[in-house]
């Protein structure tokens, strides 16, 4: 039996990325895991996010035999990915892979020739400054202007869309004078805000949404890494798991995914201090 591709997010927002990957790459079997018990990650400490992420990886690698996991969550990609790759993976699953969304997103902005980039994300994503650090490594001449926008995820998740324009306008105002050429929507949920953000920033600003970036990046990764691709099972199946059944999760997941899906609750092992 072959192995699967795992998709991990702090909650249900990553379903947008899962759906986009599914429609771009149809064959490999996939498993989605959303840590709804601990969402939101965006306001938690880096240590807590690393611990939760390790448990999620244990689950995806041990229970579902994933060959590779895509961390759809920007918060995890920004503050835990390096440790997951350099400590957790090397110690526990050296033959498997964990990929994040930060570098592929920056690569997309650079491939489009942008020199002046805007970014919005959760508190933790912006605090880590990982987007800027990674950009410095690739091309230090490119400017990035970052704004943390912590109210957006709770508003999207709690029927707050009718008030969101005011909040968005407030957050985006400082970017209006920066002459940015593109804005990275650095959070799974922000794909919902594409049109609103575009209307506010004007049509000269390209909105970079990860559901339009990650599938093609994953496809080219799989083309290059045949040692992973060869191990994947190819029945076109996708399964969905969460760590808690939260109020309204079914309607939220259907809204985010775009059609009805069956989501199962799973228990994660609680491993005291295992990852310290
Ligand atoms: N999925 C997270 C991200 O992409 C946002 C939600 C959270 O705060 O957990 O940053």
Descriptive account of the structure:
The protein is an alpha/beta fold. The chain has helices spanning 15-24, 46-63, 74-79, 81-92, 102-111, 123-128, 130-138, 152-157, 164-176, 194-201, 214-224, 226-229, 249-257, and strands at residues 4-9, 30-34, 66-71, 97-99, 116-121, 143-148, 182-186, 206-209, 238-242, 263-265. It has two domains: 4-100 and 213-265, Rossmann fold (3-Layer(aba) Sandwich); 102-210, Rossmann fold. A six-stranded parallel sheet has the order 4-3-1-2-9-10, sandwiched between helices. Strands 6-5-7-8 form a four-stranded parallel sheet, with helices on both faces. It is globular. The chain starts with a strand and ends in an 11-residue tail after the last strand. The site of D-glutamic acid has 17 residues, from α3.
Key words describing this protein structure:
four-stranded parallel β-sheet; 2 domains; Rossmann fold; 276 residues; six-stranded parallel β-sheet; 10 strands; alpha/beta
Strand content: 15-25%
Quaternary state of the chains: single chain
Distance between the termini: 34 Å
Quickly count the domains. 2
| Number of helical segments with 4 or more residues | 13
CATH topology of the largest domain: Rossmann fold
Largest sheet, if any? 6 strands, parallel
Assign an overall shape.
globular
Radius of gyration: 18 Å
The set of bound ligands, ions and cofactors reads: D-glutamic acid
**Number of strand elements:** 10
Order of neighbouring strands in the sheet with most strands: 4-3-1-2-9-10
- CATH architectural grouping of the largest domain: 3-Layer(aba) Sandwich
Which secondary-structure class do the elements indicate?
A: alpha/beta
Mean pLDDT: 93
Low-confidence stretches: none
